[in-house]
Amino acid sequence: MAKKASNTQLHQAKIAKNDEFYTQYIDIQKEVEAYLEYNPDKFRGKVVYNNCDDPYESNFFRYFVLNFEKLGLKQLITTSYKPS
Q: Which domain holds residue 49?
């Protein structure tokens, strides 16, 4: 049985952003590229809604903003509950 994460462990994961608590950029890249191998136009003309803690720290925001034109996105919407 997997060990239940304590609040302390989650807090430590938040501080150490390379922890599995946060999705790594390379994992996002691999997953999106798998979709693109299947269908190169998968994201073309689409709106991506990204709900995150802080868009300037989010690897999802970073990936989609850096690849906006390559993916052919129509719009990228990012919301957050706190400013950077």
A: 8-79
